[in-house]
Fold Probable endonuclease 4.
Amino acid sequence: MIIGCHLSTGAGFSRAVDNAGRLGADAFQYFPKNPRSYRIKAVDRHAWEKEGRLARERGLVTVGHSAYVTNLSTADPALRETTIASIVNELEICEAYGTPWLVVHCGRHMGEGWEIGRRRMVEAVDEVMRRFQGRCQLLLENTAGQGSEIGRTVDELLSIHEALESRRRVGFCLDSCHAFASGMLEPGAYERFAAEVRRPEFAGYLRVVHFNDSKGGAGEQVDRHALLGQGRMGALLVEMLRDPFFQALPVIIETPVAQEDDYAAEIEKARRWAMGEDSHQEGGEAAPLVATGQGRKTEQTGAKPSRAKKPGRKPAGG
Ligand SMILES: [Zn+2]
Ligand SMILES: [Zn+2]
């Protein structure tokens, strides 16, 4: 299983590649440029291709993440142009590194309603993909539904995606914290969520999972990540990692660690959960994974550990 985390490239992409190895990550996500700015960065294709190759030679999967400031549904024409140019620039940077995907947040309708927010976002994404003709794909991330965010549910994501001319070059990224916050993933109802994400129009385009616990409660529409096992999601996180559907996708942890080195423990924890070696014990509002009733075996406990995939690194070059 491919498990990694978000890493800084402030000291250079190659440094992030080294750090990923040190932390036991099979993948890492990075900001192609300053996440708080629209400023365009000059693309140094030659140097970056080399660094990207280094990452692949070490068996690392890389994922780009677009700037936070982006609102793909903005009504302001000047801001819209700046946003589109900024995302095209990020795609070009990812392309140079050989990164296959750039994750972007869905838009905010700013009080004008879902339908207008959706239409503006569809037009903006199509314009981005008209200007960018490389191989890197844009991934639309589900939102917590905080404020006027659109893209809270599989239905909303599909409604955006199906309207895109550029549909084939645009996929999805699913964030566990956002799914919990938006009400898509509810305590005691994992199966409903599992069925929802398996809808073929969605599953066929889902490329990356963001794996975070949540400081906010179920359905509270608060986008605040928590360290794994220290938020409100309880056993739902373990259920996700033990679901073969998610085991087949690259999983990126973006939790509020005090320092990057602490991701080693987060990754280790996620691997244990995926292996079924460690049932969830640390609170959370969701029901415990392992049934407490004596002598009553649940499907999950029956499916337990040893048959799960071995953790560890992908073979180099694989
Ligand atoms: Zn995320
Ligand atoms: Zn978030």
In short: The pocket of zinc ion (ligand 1) is lined by residues 141, 175, 210, 254 (CB under 6 Å). The longest strand covers residues 170-175. The chain has one domain: 3-302. The chain is about 35% helix and 15% strand.
